[in-house]
Write a structure and sequence with these properties.
By secondary structure, the chain is an alpha+beta fold. The chain contains 24 helices and 22 strands. It is elongated, with a radius of gyration of 35 Å.
Amino acid sequence: MSSALRWLLYPLVVVFGLAAIAIAMGVVVLSLAYPNLPSLEILTDYRPKIPLRVYTADGYLLGEFGEERRAVVDIQNVPEIMKQAILAAEDERFYQHGGVDTLGILRALHANLLSGGKRQGASTITQQVAKNFFLSSEKTYTRKFYEALLSFKIENNLNKDQILELYINQIFLGQRAYGFAAAAQIYFGKSISDLNLAEAAMLAGLPKAPSAYNPVVNPKRARIRQEYVLRRMRELGFISEAQQNAALAQALVIRREINGTPIHAEFVTEMARQIAAEQFPDDVYTRGLKVYTTILREDQEAAYTSLRRGVLDYDRRHGYRGAEAYVDLADIKSEQDEALDELLLDYHDAEDLQPAIVLQADAKKVRAYRRGGDLITISGEGLKFAARMIDDQAPPNKRLRRGAIIRVQVEEKNSWRIVQLPEVEGALLAADPHDGSIRALVGGFDFHRNKFNHVTQAWRQPGSSFKPFIYSGALERGFTPASIINDEPISFPATVTGSQAWEPKNYDGKYEGPMRMRTALAKSKNMVSIRLLQASGVRFVQDYITRFGFEAKRHPPYLTMALGAGSVTPWEMVTAYAVFANGGYRIRPYVVREIRDDKNQVLAQAEPITAGEESLRAIDPRNAYLMDSMLRDVTIYGTAARASAMLKRRDLAGKTGTTNEHVDAWFCGYQQTVVACSWIGFDQPRNLGKGETGGTAALPAWISYMARALGNTPESFPAMPEGIVALPSAASGRGPAEEVFYRENAPLELEPPPPLDEPMRAED
């Protein structure tokens, strides 16, 4: 063998020898590593963490709880356009490679060498499944090696559609969304099957960097990524150029609600969560429990809208308070600077009351930056509410100037106006008076700002809305709707009250002398209520009101009880007024109907008690009938006459309530099919302002709710029970044509007895 040939063969032998050694070592490593790879049982028996979900009684999602917001979808239910968008964005050769895309790796290496800058990755969908289920996110050669081995093992045990299904359901997509089905609902409020091309491309761009391409937080970057996905879909032949252009031109409506659902029922959802957590504490947020409430979607939206409007109307009546806060704009380089969005992060959207940063302000217009890069101009009518805070004479810490945080609201024709977050709070609760199921519950103006549930947690004075229970007790003591009581000033010395002298007054300071009990309730006469309580016996009435669900200890046995000086919650008031609505039965309100598991098996169920069972009777049916008759007068002739006038029906009953110093405003009332109560007040009790009574501040929300709740409900009136006598009324002017009595209390003829002028002694 010539020396030249030897010099040629030796290098080849060395190269082949080294290659053989490398192959042998690779075989050894594979033989040792492959058997130690984790079992694929977690994939073949896929059981993701499914959050607790809360629904309305009619099946609409109210909210969900869990670390992962997830909705599992079968691959056959994923639209083709969504699959194509995912493949274009993440792994175009998914159906050709065996788990690791060699061509993709070579292409990425070539691009990285040429660019010298940003590095391209080449992870396949199978590799991402391996990483998401089994591996950490550290970037080491060892992890990449195991990732490749796992990918081969996955490909050998599952078919391509099974792997793609796992990826579609498991991948993290921002906003706590895991899987594309959850992301479709969270970002667009849609089922994955209803996504269009533009929306599918937006979602398909998220896996690469869920934070950077999140359309809620970074809409501009999300748009750039969407354009890339659509371009790749076009290059791969998945869509036509016309489809690409149409998708690019389509305006996307991104959901920005914090709760991610279209129904405003955060307080109900939180109540349902607490109930479920108490019963199933160990795995309540991971086993896919479904909690069905008693809430009706239409009622809930009506209650939310009505209370919100009532609170905002009250707030607007009391003027603009000025800038919400100020931010430093010294480092802002332009009006489109992305840093402006960061400055707004601490200010959440309160539904349509959106935060904005003032960039320029003068008497004629305010120019402001709104989240997402939207520049708006407010002028004309939109400035009127805030005009006094633009003037140079406005307080420096409230004046609208550059850097001020304001709230804006869009009006018709895309014009804007300045508004503000209200300081006052409110609550509205509605229930079925026959079985206690809650139809609607709004515990405050904005759950995300104040999670205190005013329906169940706010103990407030009921004021005159408590008077019906004093009157009901008086009926039990022999009074009748036609009894004459004196509406004249009354005073009590310290020796009677036990503390200090008391000289109560009527709300309007006017006194009308002797009047029927029916008229006194309609006009909410304080002097009459006090005399009725005094005559009935304070301790008797304190015990009597417990029949309606009130706690005796919260209503001390003093004559101030007649003016509603005790403590109640809206939940208690609805429970109590239901007794009048259903003919005298005490029901038990409830908000959760049943809890089911992920296989739809019932795990827990409410056992409602229904009006009609005599064991539930709270008051004489005749008492309920007479009280209903008098409470309907309140809504026809009395302090709540606006209710019947606006709703154009005469089967409404209820009572306004305004506490001392105008601290709380109430209206509680019902129609035979629904009982509801609305309340407005400040969390730190203070005067609501002159003229802010129950009829002014609380009644409008109740009327607005009832208008929708009773939209298709015909008028109905309770049947007269046995033992009631009706006599022609001798009253003149407004009032019923007949007066009703217990048979044993009915006069031979209806003539007013002499006024009750003689002094009444307080009970010991």
